[in-house]
Design a protein that fits this description.
The complex is a heterodimer of chains A (218) and B (181). Chain A is of the alpha+beta class. Chain A has six helices and eleven strands. The chains are: A alpha+beta (218), B mainly alpha (181).
Protein backbone atom coordinates (compact mmCIF):
# COMPACT_ATOMS: atom_id res chain seq x y z
CA UNK A 1 0.00 0.00 0.00
CA UNK A 2 1.63 3.32 -1.05
CA UNK A 3 2.56 5.70 1.77
CA UNK A 4 -0.06 8.34 0.98
CA UNK A 5 -1.84 10.49 3.59
CA UNK A 6 -5.13 8.64 3.03
CA UNK A 7 -3.45 5.26 3.52
CA UNK A 8 -1.64 6.43 6.64
CA UNK A 9 -4.85 7.76 8.17
CA UNK A 10 -6.78 4.66 7.14
CA UNK A 11 -4.22 2.46 8.92
CA UNK A 12 -4.73 4.48 12.11
CA UNK A 13 -8.54 4.53 11.77
CA UNK A 14 -8.58 0.82 11.15
CA UNK A 15 -6.45 0.19 14.28
CA UNK A 16 -8.68 2.45 16.37
CA UNK A 17 -11.85 0.73 15.20
CA UNK A 18 -10.34 -2.64 16.15
CA UNK A 19 -9.61 -1.23 19.62
CA UNK A 20 -5.87 -1.24 19.07
CA UNK A 21 -3.37 1.18 20.54
CA UNK A 22 -2.43 4.29 18.53
CA UNK A 23 0.71 3.31 16.62
CA UNK A 24 2.02 6.46 15.02
CA UNK A 25 4.94 6.66 12.62
CA UNK A 26 7.06 9.37 11.13
CA UNK A 27 4.97 11.39 8.73
CA UNK A 28 1.73 10.83 10.65
CA UNK A 29 2.21 14.22 12.32
CA UNK A 30 1.27 15.83 9.00
CA UNK A 31 -2.27 14.62 9.62
CA UNK A 32 -2.32 15.33 13.34
CA UNK A 33 -5.67 17.11 13.34
CA UNK A 34 -7.34 14.28 11.41
CA UNK A 35 -5.81 11.69 13.74
CA UNK A 36 -6.93 13.36 16.98
CA UNK A 37 -10.47 13.77 15.69
CA UNK A 38 -10.47 10.12 14.52
CA UNK A 39 -9.52 9.08 18.06
CA UNK A 40 -12.42 11.10 19.45
CA UNK A 41 -14.89 9.60 16.99
CA UNK A 42 -13.64 6.08 17.71
CA UNK A 43 -14.13 6.72 21.43
CA UNK A 44 -17.64 8.06 20.86
CA UNK A 45 -18.62 4.79 19.19
CA UNK A 46 -17.86 2.90 22.41
CA UNK A 47 -19.95 5.15 24.67
CA UNK A 48 -18.99 6.21 28.21
CA UNK A 49 -16.11 4.08 29.40
CA UNK A 50 -15.31 2.62 32.78
CA UNK A 51 -12.10 0.94 33.79
CA UNK A 52 -11.83 -2.76 33.10
CA UNK A 53 -12.03 -4.64 36.48
CA UNK A 54 -8.62 -6.23 35.93
CA UNK A 55 -7.06 -2.83 35.27
CA UNK A 56 -8.81 -1.35 38.30
CA UNK A 57 -7.33 -4.12 40.44
CA UNK A 58 -3.88 -3.52 38.96
CA UNK A 59 -4.20 0.18 39.62
CA UNK A 60 -5.29 -0.44 43.23
CA UNK A 61 -2.23 -2.62 43.75
CA UNK A 62 0.02 0.02 42.23
CA UNK A 63 -1.49 2.74 44.45
CA UNK A 64 -1.08 0.68 47.59
CA UNK A 65 2.45 -0.46 46.90
CA UNK A 66 3.92 2.73 45.44
CA UNK A 67 7.15 3.70 47.20
CA UNK A 68 6.77 6.39 49.82
CA UNK A 69 10.27 7.88 49.71
CA UNK A 70 9.36 10.48 47.14
CA UNK A 71 6.87 12.20 49.37
CA UNK A 72 8.66 12.05 52.72
CA UNK A 73 9.57 15.62 53.50
CA UNK A 74 12.61 16.66 55.46
CA UNK A 75 10.34 17.97 58.21
CA UNK A 76 8.55 14.62 58.42
CA UNK A 77 11.85 12.79 58.50
CA UNK A 78 13.14 14.94 61.33
CA UNK A 79 9.93 14.58 63.32
CA UNK A 80 10.19 10.84 62.95
CA UNK A 81 13.75 10.92 64.20
CA UNK A 82 15.16 9.72 60.92
CA UNK A 83 17.54 12.63 60.76
CA UNK A 84 19.43 11.29 63.75
CA UNK A 85 19.27 7.74 62.46
CA UNK A 86 20.57 8.78 59.08
CA UNK A 87 23.51 10.49 60.70
CA UNK A 88 24.49 7.21 62.30
CA UNK A 89 23.77 4.90 59.40
CA UNK A 90 25.71 5.20 56.20
CA UNK A 91 24.14 3.48 53.17
CA UNK A 92 21.27 1.09 53.86
CA UNK A 93 17.57 1.63 53.48
CA UNK A 94 17.09 4.44 56.00
CA UNK A 95 19.93 6.39 54.50
CA UNK A 96 18.36 5.99 51.06
CA UNK A 97 14.98 7.18 52.29
CA UNK A 98 16.51 10.23 53.86
CA UNK A 99 18.55 10.89 50.78
CA UNK A 100 15.31 11.19 48.84
CA UNK A 101 13.87 13.42 51.53
CA UNK A 102 16.67 15.87 52.13
CA UNK A 103 16.20 18.82 49.83
CA UNK A 104 18.85 19.91 47.43
CA UNK A 105 20.14 23.45 47.95
CA UNK A 106 17.60 25.99 46.73
CA UNK A 107 18.81 27.58 43.55
CA UNK A 108 17.61 30.88 42.26
CA UNK A 109 15.74 30.70 38.99
CA UNK A 110 17.73 32.19 36.14
CA UNK A 111 16.46 34.65 33.59
CA UNK A 112 15.24 33.19 30.31
CA UNK A 113 17.36 34.80 27.63
CA UNK A 114 16.14 33.54 24.25
CA UNK A 115 18.46 33.74 21.23
CA UNK A 116 17.45 35.31 19.01
CA UNK A 117 14.96 36.99 21.31
CA UNK A 118 12.27 39.48 20.43
CA UNK A 119 9.72 41.45 22.39
CA UNK A 120 6.26 39.97 21.89
CA UNK A 121 3.09 41.93 22.62
CA UNK A 122 0.92 39.92 25.02
CA UNK A 123 -1.85 42.45 25.62
CA UNK A 124 -2.72 45.78 27.12
CA UNK A 125 -1.81 46.46 30.73
CA UNK A 126 -5.52 46.79 31.45
CA UNK A 127 -6.06 43.20 30.25
CA UNK A 128 -4.21 41.97 33.33
CA UNK A 129 -6.14 41.85 36.59
CA UNK A 130 -4.26 43.20 39.56
CA UNK A 131 -2.79 40.38 41.65
CA UNK A 132 -3.98 37.59 39.33
CA UNK A 133 -1.69 35.39 37.27
CA UNK A 134 -2.35 35.25 33.55
CA UNK A 135 -0.66 32.80 31.25
CA UNK A 136 0.81 34.19 28.06
CA UNK A 137 3.06 32.85 25.34
CA UNK A 138 5.77 34.71 23.50
CA UNK A 139 6.76 32.27 20.78
CA UNK A 140 8.37 29.34 22.55
CA UNK A 141 8.40 31.08 25.93
CA UNK A 142 5.42 30.44 28.21
CA UNK A 143 5.02 32.75 31.19
CA UNK A 144 2.67 33.81 33.94
CA UNK A 145 2.32 37.57 34.10
CA UNK A 146 1.43 39.35 37.33
CA UNK A 147 0.35 42.94 37.56
CA UNK A 148 0.68 45.07 40.70
CA UNK A 149 -0.64 48.50 39.88
CA UNK A 150 1.42 49.79 36.97
CA UNK A 151 4.20 47.24 37.48
CA UNK A 152 4.33 43.81 35.87
CA UNK A 153 6.48 40.76 36.56
CA UNK A 154 6.68 37.42 34.79
CA UNK A 155 7.89 33.95 35.63
CA UNK A 156 8.17 30.83 33.51
CA UNK A 157 5.02 28.71 33.26
CA UNK A 158 7.07 25.51 33.51
CA UNK A 159 7.71 23.92 36.91
CA UNK A 160 11.36 24.08 37.97
CA UNK A 161 11.32 20.41 38.92
CA UNK A 162 9.24 18.44 36.40
CA UNK A 163 8.58 19.77 32.90
CA UNK A 164 4.89 20.35 33.54
CA UNK A 165 2.78 23.39 32.79
CA UNK A 166 1.82 25.19 35.97
CA UNK A 167 -1.69 26.50 36.54
CA UNK A 168 -2.80 29.56 38.42
CA UNK A 169 -4.65 28.76 41.60
CA UNK A 170 -6.51 31.99 42.26
CA UNK A 171 -7.84 30.66 45.59
CA UNK A 172 -4.40 29.78 46.89
CA UNK A 173 -2.66 32.73 45.23
CA UNK A 174 -0.09 30.32 43.87
CA UNK A 175 1.14 28.59 40.75
CA UNK A 176 0.50 24.87 41.23
CA UNK A 177 2.22 22.02 39.45
CA UNK A 178 -0.17 19.32 38.24
CA UNK A 179 2.56 16.68 38.27
CA UNK A 180 3.57 16.73 41.91
CA UNK A 181 2.72 18.63 45.08
CA UNK A 182 4.67 21.78 44.38
CA UNK A 183 3.50 25.37 44.34
CA UNK A 184 5.21 28.65 43.67
CA UNK A 185 4.49 32.20 44.72
CA UNK A 186 3.92 34.83 42.04
CA UNK A 187 7.58 35.84 42.41
CA UNK A 188 8.56 32.28 41.44
CA UNK A 189 9.78 31.10 44.85
CA UNK A 190 8.55 27.63 45.90
CA UNK A 191 5.99 27.82 48.71
CA UNK A 192 7.23 24.69 50.44
CA UNK A 193 10.92 25.16 51.13
CA UNK A 194 11.16 21.65 52.55
CA UNK A 195 11.15 20.27 48.99
CA UNK A 196 14.15 22.39 48.12
CA UNK A 197 12.81 23.27 44.69
CA UNK A 198 14.57 25.86 42.61
CA UNK A 199 12.66 29.05 41.97
CA UNK A 200 10.93 29.45 38.63
CA UNK A 201 12.90 31.09 35.86
CA UNK A 202 12.25 34.79 35.49
CA UNK A 203 10.96 36.10 32.18
CA UNK A 204 11.85 39.56 30.93
CA UNK A 205 8.83 41.80 30.64
CA UNK A 206 8.16 45.48 30.01
CA UNK A 207 5.32 47.95 29.57
CA UNK A 208 5.53 50.25 26.58
CA UNK A 209 4.61 53.93 26.69
CA UNK A 210 1.42 52.97 24.84
CA UNK A 211 0.44 50.76 27.78
CA UNK A 212 1.14 47.47 26.03
CA UNK A 213 2.76 44.58 27.87
CA UNK A 214 5.64 42.88 26.07
CA UNK A 215 7.46 39.67 26.96
CA UNK A 216 10.89 38.71 25.69
CA UNK A 217 10.27 35.58 23.70
CA UNK A 218 11.17 33.98 20.40
CA UNK B 1 -5.17 31.91 30.64
CA UNK B 2 -4.66 28.51 32.15
CA UNK B 3 -7.75 27.40 34.02
CA UNK B 4 -7.47 27.36 37.78
CA UNK B 5 -9.88 25.51 39.97
CA UNK B 6 -13.47 26.68 39.49
CA UNK B 7 -14.86 29.03 42.09
CA UNK B 8 -17.25 26.53 43.66
CA UNK B 9 -14.38 24.14 44.29
CA UNK B 10 -12.37 26.80 46.02
CA UNK B 11 -15.43 27.59 48.12
CA UNK B 12 -15.83 23.92 49.02
CA UNK B 13 -12.18 23.80 50.00
CA UNK B 14 -12.57 26.85 52.19
CA UNK B 15 -15.64 25.35 53.80
CA UNK B 16 -13.44 22.51 55.02
CA UNK B 17 -14.88 19.77 52.80
CA UNK B 18 -12.00 17.49 53.75
CA UNK B 19 -11.97 13.81 52.98
CA UNK B 20 -10.95 11.53 55.76
CA UNK B 21 -8.42 9.01 54.56
CA UNK B 22 -8.09 6.79 57.60
CA UNK B 23 -6.99 3.53 56.01
CA UNK B 24 -4.93 2.74 52.96
CA UNK B 25 -7.73 0.70 51.38
CA UNK B 26 -10.30 3.47 51.93
CA UNK B 27 -7.95 6.02 50.43
CA UNK B 28 -7.37 3.71 47.48
CA UNK B 29 -11.12 3.27 46.92
CA UNK B 30 -11.63 7.02 46.89
CA UNK B 31 -8.71 7.49 44.53
CA UNK B 32 -10.01 4.75 42.21
CA UNK B 33 -13.48 6.33 42.06
CA UNK B 34 -11.91 9.62 41.06
CA UNK B 35 -9.63 7.85 38.58
CA UNK B 36 -12.72 6.36 36.87
CA UNK B 37 -13.58 9.90 35.77
CA UNK B 38 -10.03 10.48 34.63
CA UNK B 39 -10.06 7.23 32.66
CA UNK B 40 -13.30 8.20 30.87
CA UNK B 41 -11.87 11.63 30.09
CA UNK B 42 -8.67 10.17 28.65
CA UNK B 43 -10.46 7.38 26.76
CA UNK B 44 -12.71 9.93 25.08
CA UNK B 45 -9.59 11.54 23.63
CA UNK B 46 -7.32 8.62 22.72
CA UNK B 47 -10.10 6.25 21.59
CA UNK B 48 -8.54 3.01 22.77
CA UNK B 49 -8.27 1.05 25.99
CA UNK B 50 -4.55 0.29 26.03
CA UNK B 51 -3.44 3.92 25.76
CA UNK B 52 -6.19 5.07 28.14
CA UNK B 53 -5.01 2.57 30.77
CA UNK B 54 -1.35 3.55 30.41
CA UNK B 55 -2.13 7.25 30.70
CA UNK B 56 -4.52 6.77 33.64
CA UNK B 57 -1.83 4.82 35.45
CA UNK B 58 0.64 7.65 34.82
CA UNK B 59 -1.85 10.13 36.27
CA UNK B 60 -2.35 7.92 39.33
CA UNK B 61 1.37 7.55 39.97
CA UNK B 62 2.03 11.25 39.62
CA UNK B 63 -0.88 12.15 41.88
CA UNK B 64 -0.10 9.70 44.70
CA UNK B 65 1.44 12.31 47.03
CA UNK B 66 -1.65 14.49 46.88
CA UNK B 67 -3.95 11.48 47.24
CA UNK B 68 -2.15 10.51 50.42
CA UNK B 69 -2.21 13.89 52.06
CA UNK B 70 -5.88 13.92 53.05
CA UNK B 71 -6.48 16.77 50.66
CA UNK B 72 -9.98 18.23 50.19
CA UNK B 73 -12.20 16.17 47.89
CA UNK B 74 -12.49 18.98 45.39
CA UNK B 75 -8.74 19.47 45.38
CA UNK B 76 -8.11 15.78 44.67
CA UNK B 77 -10.36 15.83 41.62
CA UNK B 78 -8.98 19.13 40.42
CA UNK B 79 -5.44 17.87 40.91
CA UNK B 80 -6.11 14.59 39.10
CA UNK B 81 -7.61 16.39 36.13
CA UNK B 82 -4.83 18.93 35.96
CA UNK B 83 -2.40 16.00 35.98
CA UNK B 84 -4.45 14.20 33.32
CA UNK B 85 -4.30 17.26 31.13
CA UNK B 86 -0.54 17.41 31.47
CA UNK B 87 -0.10 13.67 30.80
CA UNK B 88 -2.40 13.77 27.77
CA UNK B 89 -0.63 16.86 26.47
CA UNK B 90 2.67 14.99 26.74
CA UNK B 91 1.19 11.97 24.95
CA UNK B 92 0.04 13.97 21.91
CA UNK B 93 3.05 16.24 21.76
CA UNK B 94 5.44 13.26 21.87
CA UNK B 95 3.61 11.31 19.19
CA UNK B 96 2.39 14.04 16.89
CA UNK B 97 4.31 17.14 17.90
CA UNK B 98 1.09 18.90 18.85
CA UNK B 99 1.76 22.09 20.76
CA UNK B 100 -0.11 23.14 23.87
CA UNK B 101 -1.90 25.84 21.91
CA UNK B 102 -3.18 23.25 19.42
CA UNK B 103 -4.30 21.04 22.27
CA UNK B 104 -5.99 23.74 24.29
CA UNK B 105 -9.38 23.07 22.78
CA UNK B 106 -9.02 19.32 23.04
CA UNK B 107 -7.94 19.46 26.65
CA UNK B 108 -10.32 22.20 27.74
CA UNK B 109 -12.87 20.75 30.07
CA UNK B 110 -15.12 21.28 32.98
CA UNK B 111 -14.13 18.96 35.78
CA UNK B 112 -16.96 16.37 35.80
CA UNK B 113 -19.19 16.30 38.84
CA UNK B 114 -20.55 12.80 38.34
CA UNK B 115 -20.01 9.45 36.64
CA UNK B 116 -18.75 9.18 33.05
CA UNK B 117 -21.33 10.89 30.82
CA UNK B 118 -22.44 10.77 27.21
CA UNK B 119 -20.77 14.14 26.55
CA UNK B 120 -18.13 12.67 24.16
CA UNK B 121 -20.86 11.10 21.99
CA UNK B 122 -22.84 14.30 21.93
CA UNK B 123 -19.74 16.19 20.92
CA UNK B 124 -19.11 13.64 18.14
CA UNK B 125 -22.68 14.05 16.90
CA UNK B 126 -22.30 17.82 16.88
CA UNK B 127 -19.09 17.49 14.85
CA UNK B 128 -20.78 15.18 12.35
CA UNK B 129 -23.83 17.42 12.09
CA UNK B 130 -21.61 20.32 11.05
CA UNK B 131 -20.19 18.43 8.04
CA UNK B 132 -21.43 18.19 4.46
CA UNK B 133 -23.67 15.20 3.65
CA UNK B 134 -20.97 13.03 2.05
CA UNK B 135 -18.39 13.69 4.73
CA UNK B 136 -20.92 13.04 7.50
CA UNK B 137 -22.09 9.83 5.84
CA UNK B 138 -18.61 8.36 5.42
CA UNK B 139 -17.67 9.10 9.05
CA UNK B 140 -21.00 7.87 10.41
CA UNK B 141 -20.73 4.58 8.54
CA UNK B 142 -17.10 4.09 9.48
CA UNK B 143 -17.02 5.26 13.09
CA UNK B 144 -20.57 4.94 14.41
CA UNK B 145 -21.66 1.83 12.50
CA UNK B 146 -18.22 0.21 12.24
CA UNK B 147 -18.41 -0.44 8.47
CA UNK B 148 -15.28 -1.56 6.65
CA UNK B 149 -13.98 0.55 3.77
CA UNK B 150 -15.42 -1.96 1.32
CA UNK B 151 -18.84 -1.77 2.96
CA UNK B 152 -18.76 2.02 2.96
CA UNK B 153 -17.80 1.99 -0.74
CA UNK B 154 -20.72 -0.32 -1.55
CA UNK B 155 -23.15 1.77 0.49
CA UNK B 156 -22.02 4.98 -1.16
CA UNK B 157 -21.65 3.46 -4.63
CA UNK B 158 -18.04 4.42 -4.77
CA UNK B 159 -14.62 2.76 -4.78
CA UNK B 160 -12.44 1.87 -1.82
CA UNK B 161 -9.77 4.32 -3.00
CA UNK B 162 -12.25 7.16 -3.29
CA UNK B 163 -13.73 6.40 0.13
CA UNK B 164 -10.26 6.45 1.69
CA UNK B 165 -9.61 9.92 0.28
CA UNK B 166 -13.06 11.10 1.31
CA UNK B 167 -12.50 9.76 4.83
CA UNK B 168 -9.27 11.75 5.13
CA UNK B 169 -10.93 14.93 3.86
CA UNK B 170 -13.91 14.38 6.16
CA UNK B 171 -11.61 13.98 9.17
CA UNK B 172 -9.72 17.14 8.22
CA UNK B 173 -13.03 18.98 7.96
CA UNK B 174 -14.21 17.52 11.29
CA UNK B 175 -11.05 18.80 12.97
CA UNK B 176 -11.98 22.31 11.89
CA UNK B 177 -15.46 22.24 13.45
CA UNK B 178 -15.46 24.75 16.32
CA UNK B 179 -15.95 23.23 19.78
CA UNK B 180 -19.20 25.10 20.37
CA UNK B 181 -20.75 23.97 17.06
Amino acid sequence: MPDTPENRVERIVSDLLRGHRLKLRGGDAEEKEAITVAARLAAARQGPQRMNPAFRKRLARALETAPKEGWLTRRAALVAGLGVAAGAVSGGLIGKSLHAAVPAPIARGGIIDPHPGRWVDVGALTDFIDGQGKRVTAGAVGAFVFRRGEAVTAVSSICSHLPCELWWNAGGDSLDCPCHPASFRPDGVATNQAYGLASLNQVSIRVTTAGRVEVLGT
Amino acid sequence: MDPGPPGDEVAAERAGDVLELPAASRATDIALDELELVYAFIYARVGNRADAEDLTQQVAMKAIPRLRQGAPASAIRGYLFATARSVLGGFWSTRLGLSEAELREDLAMAIPAGPPSAEPEERARRILAALSDNYRRVLELRFLHGYSLKEVAAEMRSTVGAVKVMQLRALRAAAKVPPDA
